[in-house]
Write a structure and sequence with these properties.
It is a single chain. By secondary structure, this protein is an alpha+beta fold. The chain is built from two helices and five strands. The strands form two sheets. It has a three-stranded antiparallel beta sheet with strand order 2-3-4, with helices on one face. A two-stranded antiparallel ribbon has the order 1-5. The longest helix has 11 residues.
């Protein structure tokens, strides 16, 4: 699969505290994607399956074709916050 067409971020930072944005990035990254932009370009979709009550990601298709399912509540543990990468374009 050619990743040449995937848009590249201009910068990357690492968060110090948990937030909804950190949770979102964490879920994409454990499924093998940089962020929502890369997910949508690689999967060729505009749809991300989300929980209706809080908007957190519910399910992602991993790069190997299997699915990754997420809970309704926070999944990013405190010890993983500083490992999460936040990209900006």
């Amino acid at each position: 699969m050619a990743d040449i067409a995937v848009r590249q971020p201009k910068s990357m930072t690492r968060p110090k505290i948990w937030s909804d944005e950190v949770e979102e990035a964490y879920r994409f990254q454990i499924a093998g994607y940089r962020d929502e932009v890369e997910y949508k370009e690689i999967q060729k979709t505009d749809h991300v399956d989300r929980w209706p009550h809080n908007g957190y990601i519910k399910k992602l298709v991993r790069r190997d074709g299997y699915f990754y399912y997420y809970n309704k509540t926070r999944e990013c543990p405190d010890k993983e916050i500083h490992k999460t990468k936040m990209y900006s374009y």
